Every structure is written in C-alpha cells, then in structure tokens.
C-alpha cells in the first residue's frame, strides 16, 4: 500500500505542474502582458491637458484684431459680434495699452511696445515673439492679412493693407513666408495652424468704414469658423487695438471669446493685451514674454479643465 501511495502522489504532482504550465502558456498566447511587463498607458486624447488640473489647449486659435472702436459701440452696432459674445464671453473690463495702433499690436504679439510710440514703418526686432515661441515649441503659426499682395510681403502699404497692423512682419524670429494673404487661409479649418491671426483691411477692420460694415465682413469671413470652433476644441478671439478716443484714459476696448468650453456670459475681470498674450502662452506652455509675465492669465477657459 505504501508503494501505491507514493506512485499516486507523484502522478498528482506531475498533473498539477502540467496544468500550471498550460495555464501560463494560454495566458501568454492570448495576448495578455507578461506579469513582469508594464501595462502600456492609454494615449492622450487630442486637446487633453498635459498635467492634471491644467487648462486643455485648443487645437486651433484664430485671433482677429479690429480697429479703434469703443466697447459699448461695438456691442450696440455690431449684431454679429454681439451674437458671438452671447455664445461665448465678452471681456467687459478690457483695455489697450496706449495710442496709436502699432504699439498695441506689438504689446499683444511680444509682451512689450518695444519702445514704439508711433505708426512709423518699417520696424525690425530680433524677438522673441509669440510666433517665434510657438515655432520653437514645435507648434505652428501663421498670419493672414487682407490685401497683402503676396506671402512674405515686406512693404509698408498695399491697397487696404498696412504693415503697422502686422507685427509679425517686424520680428526676425518669424519666417516671412508665414505672413500670408487672407485668400490663403484654409477653408478646411482642421488644417489651420495652432495659432493664427486674421487682419482685415483698413475698411473691414472698422478703421475707415462703419462698424456695421466691419461686422458684416466678420460674419462672412469668420462666421463658419466660429460655429465650427464650438464643437472642435478650438477658439476664436476678437479684440481691438485701441479705443476711438485718444483722450480716453481708460482706453476701453471690446474683446470676445467663443469656442468649445468657453465660459458663457460677461467676464468682468480686468484685462489688457498683456493678459491676453499671457493666456495664449499658458494654453501652450510657453514662457511669458515681457510684461505678460506680470499679467494674470484670463479665466474664460477655466471651465474646460472641469
């Protein structure tokens, strides 16, 4: 009986070992990771925040700069812009830095007026600028100007185009060819650069023509993008260079944001071109430039992180 018990025990042990081997082989062949191998992390979704709690970056931002109008007049006389404000947010305490136009464009694009206090042309600066920062970070940038005769045009004027409203033309860290005629702007909005500027001509930016005419131009050229942005993780920003009155110490201007995740309703926080630039830099993890380092990022996209 002792000999039979020994044989039975040996057979049982062999069966258990064989069964364990078979189970491990089956698990490996089924595609499950080996217990010693790490499980791959899921790929991030487009537009996801790089860190927990960070504001997710839009896939595309289009910034339109208009000219020389008071905040109240824009809301009263521009029904399309008012509809954008109703769909998104209107910065009700937004201010330009100075007069005339050119220093404000420089402030928005580089964080500093670069010592400029006039509209003289041409100007040249080595950078850094927002466009140069985006390119250095592996992102994309372009500007689209109405009446620009050709890509990379360096002249001061052509028909309704004025270089004083195109600060990227002054910075050597932005390749000239990234300044394109408005007709080059993609109609397939998914092909837009990460950040782009749209500059209407001197009539359609409301500088030389009535607010209503500029508003109609905005509807025609940016209406489809505004609708698309609300469902495609993108953003439209419309701002002004300065107020109409040079005697206005507040330099109060209209600024509107619309897009997916933009907090809806008036935004009363104090803002200027430096804080708008700082907001863009925060979205794309870019270092703040010049006076934007002293400005707080705006909060109209905070709800996106929820």
TrEMBL record:
List keywords of the entry alphabetically: Hydrolase, Signal, Virulence
List, as start-end ranges, the regions of compositional bias called Pro residues: 35-45
Q: Does the keyword Hydrolase apply?
A: yes
* UniProt xrefs under InterPro entries: Alkaline_phosphatase_core_sf, Phosphoesterase
For region Disordered, the annotated ranges are 27-54
Pfam families recorded for this chain?
Answer: Phosphoesterase
Signal keyword on record: yes
Superkingdom classification of source: Bacteria
Gene3D superfamilies tied to this protein = Alkaline Phosphatase, subunit A (3.40.720.10)
Q: Where is the signal peptide?
A: 1-26
Matching PANTHER family, A to Z? Answer: NON-SPECIFIC PHOSPHOLIPASE C1 (PTHR31956:SF1), NON-SPECIFIC PHOSPHOLIPASE C4-RELATED (PTHR31956)
Protein's recorded name: Alkaline phosphatase family protein
Tell me what organism the protein belongs to. Answer: Pseudonocardia adelaidensis
